[in-house]
Write a structure and sequence with these properties.
Layout: H1 2-93, H2 109-121
Length: 151
Amino acid sequence: MADTSQGATMDCILQEISAVGRRLEGMDGMMASLTEDTRSRRLDIAGFQSQVTALEQGVMSVETQAVLTSDRDQELLYLRSKVIDLEDRGCRDNVRFLGFPKNIEGTDMQSFLKSTLPQITGLSFEPPRSFKEHTDWIPNIMMEPTTHDLS
């Protein structure tokens, strides 16, 4: 009897092993499907990574251009103010009156010019907004001084 019960137990064990084997075969198909699905997802992720890398490079390029544009804007503002200053200085410095007696203008150059220039030229004189009196210039020796009768 021990042999029959042992044989029955062995048959049960073999049946159980067969059932587990069939389940494992079904799982092999599922594992193959999961493996293929994982490969597909890895390829998708690699594609996304390359797209993200390209986008990051594009953003860095745009940021670099923004910095350069900001620097250029600052330089442009500086150069505009420089041009305005140079134009103002050019307007101030492009007229020199030679031949007048020293210190004839007194303490107010603008009043002197407003009263004297119309007498000499027949034109009225309104100093520009940038007019400033400069006395630190060196006369041009090559120019012939002119004299005017102020009486």
